[in-house]
Write a structure and sequence with these properties.
mainly alpha, 60% helix, 11 helices
Amino acid sequence: MTNGQTMHTVAGESRFPTTRWTLVVAAGDPRRKEARSALVSLCENYWYPLYAYLRRRGYPADQAQDLTQEFFTRVLEGRYLDRADPEKGRFRFFLLTSLKFFVSDEEDRQRARKRGGGQLVPLDFSSGEARYQREPAHGETPERIFERRWALSVLDRVVEKLRDEFVQHGRPEHFERLKVFLLGQSDAPYAALAREMHTSEGALKVAIHRLRKRYRELFRREIADTVADPADVESELRYLAAALTAK
């Protein structure tokens, strides 16, 4: 197996493999196809926080779309990757810092490249703008909306991965019923739900316990993909919690 695929076990616990963010650092090397693929994947999954940042900075929807698409086009062409410093360790930090440099340069241009030209990452701007219109209207700073949307994007990715696992096992309806227990937000009586699912209350509690455990595992892995060092996972967890609860 390659370095990006190997797993090691220490004291009975699995350590994270080489992360996608670690590969991104090497994405400037055209010979590293896996690095390019990792970069595309992260851009596809985490473009919306940058789009929301630009909209909150005051750019109209069409210009924010142009800037977002052009920014990712340049990143995937290898621009800004020299700033992908593993010492700073956060993919979100790299993206936002690079976007600020890009926007500063682009403000001297009369217009961005026509939307869709040279598109390297398929970004669903129609749904992105619909999401932005549902953002709170209060005076949230561009940086604050980026941080909150980044945290929510991580959560969304984890829930989607967990749903996919249920689908693969032919039990999507189980996930839809149980997902309310992921964050401990459901006060639904176990006995009633167990009857609806044609199982025992004890079996239901075991299923919920396993769901939460798997959710935590996937959550940590998703975070590990966006930091350079597995040792940074805990601090990133704290960052996400703070971003979601800050007023």
